[in-house]
Amino acid sequence: MNRRSEAHPRTTSRVFAPLLTVSLVFAACSSEVSGSPGTGDAGAPVPTGMPCEVVRTLTQNCVTCHGARLATGVRNHLLTREELLAPSAVNPAQSYLQRAILRMRNTTAASMPPNTHLPDSDIAPLEAWLAAGTPAAECSTDAGAPTVDASYVPGEDLPCEVQQLLSSECTSCHSSPPRNGADISLLTRADLMAPSAVQPGATVAQRAVARMTASAMMMPPGGNLSAARIQGFVDWVAAGAPGTNCEAPVVDPFAAAEQCTTMRTWTSGNRGSASMNPGQACIACHSRMRGPFYNFAGTVYASAHEPNNCNGASGASPERVTVEIRGADGMTLRLTPNSVGNFATRSTVMMPYTVRVLVGDRERRMNTPQMDGDCNTCHSQAGENDSPGRIILP
Questions:
Q1: How confident is the model at residue 293 (pLDDT cuts 50, 70, 90)?
Q2: Any domain includes 359
Q3: Residue 11: closest CA among 182, 159, 151
Q4: Which range is least confidently modeled, 52-66, 78-92, 311-325?
Q5: From residue 130, how far is each of 97, 183, 315 by CA, in Å?
Q6: pLDDT(42) > 80
Q7: Does any domain span residue 324?
């Protein structure tokens, strides 16, 4: 499970640290649910046997319903090259790939994804792959990828607000070299001024604006960046993306020293309590110890490398802390950590999910979609599976 994130002021996939904590009883965690439950399950593996651009289109628009578990009324999987090339049940003279392209191009109620008209640039990779004879290909992701310093600060010739947006929302994937299926870097002004490979006549920066504000194929994954959040980047691009030095130092919150900020720890072992074992992998522990079942659980901390059993950040002081878990169907869970930073819920959302920690008008995002709700398995003191450390306040 890759748990890579960051948020305000740095929100790359890597900077979201502690998200779930081990405990046998989490009675004191409040929660609320918004949105409507979906009928599909995006808990499927990433599509395989095809180019990255095809994988990206399918992952963000199709596998929620056409994944390992089919949504209600859906009859075919779209996860492998073989499944895409199989004869369509509706028209055996067409493959499912051909049928999918026709549905994506449809401007009536029969369009796919439902109620969405994808831009040409998002359908074009499927059409190009089909025209080329659908050759088998593998889209490399994190496996075997070179080590990347995800705290790398974007180019010094970028305005501060542009640096901040890129480092918090983009560079965990659009690093150098790119990762997680991304095919370009977004680290320097030169990267942003380069011609877009998928939108003729536009720069990469202009394409980035379009993707951040699109209703489909939105970037970053999970999207929904507020207009205020991206306004500085939009204005900079509209002004011609002038070279401007940022003199404000960028602080990496995960470079902090190991410490127990609250200087208080849990000392009662596995005795049931909502305050028990902050920082430990709750769901795994509950499974071993036959404790209450949770779908999501974790601990929020004030700094990135707090030890197990150290009390985390209170959800109520000095400002209310909210952990927002957003499913692939848009359904959202909002959890308030208790007095030691623990949170947990039996509620669920459609996988994969993304997460934000909100405090006032500040936020920290985990943009890389996840399949496992036992957050502290990755958001440990040192960090596991590409996590840089704990889930921390923005």
A1: confident
A2: yes
A3: 151
A4: 52-66
A5: 8, 20, 51
A6: no
A7: yes
Q: Closest Cα partner for 192 from 219, 170, 214?
A: 170
| Closest among 164, 175, 168, 166 to 142, alpha carbons compared | 175
**171 and 127 within one domain:** no
Q: For residue 233, which of 190, 169, 185, 296 has the smallest C-alpha distance?
A: 169
Confidence check: pLDDT of 168 > 90: no
236 to 10, 37, 146, 311: CA distances (angstroms): 19, 38, 32, 42
**Confidence label for 158 from pLDDT (cuts 50, 70 and 90):** confident
User: Among all chains, which residue has been given the structure tokens 């359908």?
Assistant: 123
DSSP helix/strand/coil, 211: helix
**More confident of the two residues 45 and 41:** 45
CB-count burial class (<10 Å; 0-12, 13-18, 19+) for 257: exposed
Domain residues for the domain of 203 are 160-238
For 323, the enclosing helix (H) or strand (E) is strand 321-326
- DSSP code at position 377: G
Backbone angles phi and psi of 389, in degrees to 5 = 155, -150
**How many domains does one find in the chain?**
3
CB burial string 164-178: b at 16+ within 10 A, e below: bbbbbbbbbbbbbeb
**What are 218-226's contacts with CB under 8 Å, separation 24+?**
218/60, 219/170, 220/169, 220/170, 220/173, 220/365, 220/367, 221/60, 221/354, 221/367, 221/368, 221/369, 222/326, 222/354, 222/365, 222/367, 222/369, 224/326, 225/169
Residues 206 and 274 in one domain: no
Alpha-carbon 350 to chain mean position: 14
Record the pTM.
Answer: 0.49
Decide if pLDDT at 375 tops 70: yes
Q: In what order do the strands lie in the sheet with 362-370?
A: 30-34, 332-336, 321-326, 353-359, 362-370
Q: Judge if 27 and 57 occupy the same domain.
A: no
